[in-house]
Design a protein that fits this description.
The chain has two domains: 17-73, DNA polymerase, domain 1; 90-196 and 211-232, 2-Layer Sandwich (Dna Ligase, domain 1). 34% of the residues lie in helices and 18% in strands. The protein is built from eight helices and five strands, in the order αααααβαββαββα. Strands 1, 2, 3, 4 and 5 form a five-stranded antiparallel sheet that branches.
Length: 265
């Protein structure tokens, strides 16, 4: 017996009604709990009945999306198929701290870590950034300690995804916007002006740049294999007391081995 794959091809089938009749209305894409109740109230219990329902009635009684769903069931495409993926225009990494930060050293460690994460993300998509923004702020709800918020953007001389370059520039920005005497609650970095890395070959590309690119690939491969921050830069720190608290965060059951549910007899 042929193993069931869980995927059914409907190509070449002239009469889909017998199949659609077996698909309950709540299993149709885009039909939620409330819409299911509405359809069932009006005698629509499966995909075939929705398909054969008057378009005028659906538009009048529901919405345009429901009308499109019915048209798709009739074989009329309403959503264009995207053959190319859209490249992101920016990349933001920002976190609230687990405890308030008052020293430049701890704030620098946090910003450096965010730079490493952002650089790794755009490298994974073969992108380079033209500019970087660093922003910091204190809590808006604790005004008795004083409120401060600031941000600054700097253009790179040449678009880059080099972690060392982004960290160096970010720390320089932080030095210009950091103020003593405040208890910082949040910081972040944003890489903007993203474009394809392959489009950025220029006369200034040197053997040193090729070595740095190889270094970045080695770092990414190592961190992917052994865990993020296995290889890092010194300015990112080691102890990271400022890390956000995660004891109440949702478990990642599908992506973290240690979050797998335990079965007891």
């Amino acid at each position: 017996k042929k193993k069931q794959s869980g995927v059914t091809s409907l190509i070449g089938i002239d009469n889909l009604d017998p199949i659609l009749e077996k698909v309950e209305i709540n299993d149709v894409w885009g039909v939620g709990r409330q819409l299911t109740k509405f359809y069932q109230k009006h005698g629509i219990y499966n995909a075939k009945q929705l398909k054969n329902k008057s378009n005028t009635w659906i538009k009048k009684s529901s919405n345009v999306l429901s009308s499109r769903t019915a048209m798709e069931l009739r074989g009329i495409p309403c959503i264009d198929l995207e053959t190319t993926t859209t490249k992101r225009k920016s990349c933001v990494v920002s976190r609230s701290f687990g405890k308030r930060i008052e020293t430049f050293q701890e704030l620098k460690e946090a910003v450096a870590n965010y730079c490493l994460n952002a650089s790794e993300k755009i490298r994974s998509e073969s992108l380079v950034a033209k500019a970087i923004t660093v922003f910091v702020r204190t809590s808006p709800f604790h005004r008795n300690f004083g409120y401060y918020s600031n941000a600054k953007t700097v253009d790179f001389p040449i678009a880059t995804n080099n972690s060392i370059e982004t960290v160096k520039t970010a720390v320089s920005i932080l030095e210009s916007i950091f103020k003593n005497g405040y208890r910082y609650q949040k910081a972040g970095v944003m890489l903007t002006g993203l474009s394809n890395a392959s489009d950025k070959t220029n006369l200034f590309t040197s053997e040193k740049d090729e070595k740095i690119n190889s270094l970045m690939k080695s770092i990414d491969n190592t961190n992917h294999r052994y865990g993020r921050s296995t290889l890092s830069v010194a300015s990112a720190g080691v102890h990271k007391k400022w890390n956000m608290r995660r004891q109440y965060s949702s478990k990642i059951d599908t992506a973290d081995f240690y979050c797998l549910p335990t079965i007891r007899a």
